[in-house]
Amino acid sequence: MFEALGGSASEAASDGSVIGAVLRAAAVLALVGGALLLRLVRALGTATHRDAAG
């Protein structure tokens, strides 16, 4: 997954595009954070429905 976003940070830094490496890192963090947040929201929603039904 990380390679699909454009290579490693060391390669980007050697090319002189440190900003690109930072943006890629931010994109990875956003994807991972978004997935975790979505999972958390679904878990909370399921628990709420379970409590309401019980």
Helical content band: over 70%
Number of domains: 1
Shape: rod-shaped
Low-pLDDT regions: none
Q: Look at the structure and give the mean pLDDT.
A: 77
Annotation, overall tally of beta strands: 0
Major beta sheet summary: none
Using only CA atoms, what is the Rg? 18 Å
Q: Ends: how far apart? A: 41 Å
Supply the helix-strand structural class. mainly alpha
Question: What is the H/E string?
Answer: HH
User: Approximately what portion of the residues adopt beta-strand conformation?
Assistant: under 5%
Q: Treating each run of at least 4 consecutive H or I residues as one helix, how many helices? A: 2
Give an overview in words.
This protein is mainly α and 54 residues long. The chain has one domain (3-53). It contains two helices and no strands. The model has no long low-confidence stretch (mean pLDDT 77).
